[in-house]
Amino acid sequence: MTATPLPQLDQMKDILDLKDIHAWDVRWVWALGASLLLILLLVIARSLWKNRKKKPAAPAIPLTPLQAALKKLDDLVNSRLVESGQVRRFYFGLSDLFREFIERELEIPACEATLEELRPKLKSSAWLNPDQTREATGLLELADMAKFARYVPPREEIVGSVKACRSWITQVAEQRQRALAESLKQKEAGA
Q1: What's residue 109's pLDDT?
Q2: 146 Cβ partners below 8 Å, 6+ apart?
Q3: Rounded CA gap, 106 and 30, in Å?
Q4: Cα distance between residue 29 and residue 26, in whole Å
Q5: Deepest in the core among 28, 112, 139, 175, taking most CB within 10 A?
Q6: Domains of the chain, residue spans
Q7: Nearest Cα to 166, choosing from 74, 64, 65, 83?
Q8: What CA–CA distance (Å, rounded) separates 178 from 186?
Q9: Which tens digit of pLDDT belongs to each residue from 118-142?
Q10: Which CATH architecture has domain 65-190?
């Protein structure tokens, strides 16, 4: 093996001088931080906007049993179920609103009762006279026939049912209001 002399320093190409330490460009770090901060601020602003206190709506005045029943009756008539051939569904709605009125106005549990269970309760009610009891049971019997026996009454009978329902609930509510007003006057006079 022969020894080769070392080349002179200026002739060496494979050994390079040390490079200066290169400083990092930190502008991109600042840009990233600013972007994240902006996103965070937008998220916070959005959540505050969604959760801001809204002005409370005017308190809703609850409807009286009469007002609620008449509104439901109007909605039922305007639904045009009879015209579209859905008489059974119409009588389900009519029976439900009629029973809800009885339950709310007369405080007789009518929504979950059968007609046979409801009949004696209507007869024993101090608020109803025998004619009103007969009208109520007649209306509920017709509704039950349409709902369960699939009886399709003629158009005139359906219109008559709506009129009878409207008349009955209005008459009973007004009669009860008069009786309660008289009772209050008597209590005030006696006190």
Answers
A1: 93
A2: 87, 88, 90, 91, 152, 153
A3: 74
A4: 5
A5: 139
A6: 65-190
A7: 74
A8: 12
A9: 999 999 998 899 999 999 999 999 9
A10: Up-down Bundle (1.20)
